Amino acid sequence: MLPRVADSLSFLYLDMVRVIQDDTGVCAQIHVGNGRTDLVYLPTAALSCLLLGPGVSITTPVLNTLARHGTTVVSTGSGGVRAYAGILPDSLTTHWLEQQVSTWSDPVRRLDVATRMYAMRFGNAEIPDGVTLDQLRGMEGQRMKALYKILAQQHGIGRFRRNYHPDQWQDQDPVNLALSSANTCLYGIVHAALLALGLSPALGFVHAGTQHALVYDVADLYKAETTLPVAFALHQSTNPEKEARRRFREELRLLRLLPRIVRDVQALLTPSHASGTEDRSERRDIDMVHLWDPKTGSLPAGVNYATGTN
């Protein structure tokens, strides 16, 4: 699966294969039965993020090749529904991380991103001008309450109340169990997308105080259309947690969401990017480290500035 964003950012998910380097390139060895093994060569130079699911073994030469090509490697659960660890190549641009940090550290710009995150959840609904963040939180609460009611009526399960208590896990109803499991799957795929961009998952704009703050921010944009319908559809399941994970894996719902997550996060961090007034290159790969300057922004490194500054 190679969902592409613009022309340069792509993801590839693998599981149950061995990935090796031969004289031709990087290839996945796929055992197809009867002692036969097929080789599928990977387009590493055009690949931005490789998601390694269960059953993947990968050699050091392959990791070196991926690093040279600037490919991020993320260890995930089956179907990419968890993100356990990521390896970022040193050639990955810090552009998006710098955008995140500069926006996050400015209270006015952080509030703007948080406000637009809430607005995205409402879709095409009209947001009153000058609405405060406190008012948006109240509107979001009402929206979720109404959505719970609609889904409960559609499935004939009466009144539903979101309940998440890890210490009372087995006492929860099937919908709550399925929803917690599905949300965890969504967090994994969002986490992988953020790592692929080189962002810090800890610097959230709505959430704070956890290493997954930005993961929770971004995942909240999609729960109403992804995890909630799946969870309510499993209200009669005897194993709703497993069933929720299976549905996401088999239908690849979350993997198809990856390009959209990347696009939305970029638009949130740089509104001009979304409007098409900025260079649409996602990677912004750099060949040389720059020096920061408070007036010019950046200066070339590797230059002797002794004569120019005195």
UniProtKB/TrEMBL annotation:
Keyword terms of this UniProt record = Antiviral defense, DNA-binding, Endonuclease, Hydrolase, Magnesium, Manganese, Metal-binding, Nuclease
User: Is Protein biosynthesis one of the keywords?
Assistant: no
**The protein's enzyme class:** hydrolase
The family assignment reads: Belongs to the CRISPR-associated endonuclease Cas1 family.
**Which residues participate in Mn(2+) binding?**
140, 207, 220
Q: Could you tell me the superkingdom of the organism this chain comes from?
A: Bacteria
Kindly list the biological process annotations in GO that this record carries.
defense response to virus; maintenance of CRISPR repeat elements
Describe the task this protein carries out: CRISPR (clustered regularly interspaced short palindromic repeat), is an adaptive immune system that provides protection against mobile genetic elements (viruses, transposable elements and conjugative plasmids). CRISPR clusters contain spacers, sequences complementary to antecedent mobile elements, and target invading nucleic acids. CRISPR clusters are transcribed and processed into CRISPR RNA (crRNA). Acts as a dsDNA endonuclease. Involved in the integration of spacer DNA into the CRISPR cassette.
User: What Enzyme Commission number(s) appear in the record?
Assistant: 3.1.-.-
The terms under GO molecular function for this entry are: DNA binding; DNA endonuclease activity; hydrolase activity; metal ion binding
Designated gene of the protein? cas1
Q: Does the keyword Metal-binding apply?
A: yes
Quote any Pfam family the record assigns.
Cas_Cas1
Species in which this protein is naturally found: Streptomyces tirandamycinicus
Q: What is this protein called?
A: CRISPR-associated endonuclease Cas1
Assembly information from the UniProt record: Homodimer, forms a heterotetramer with a Cas2 homodimer.
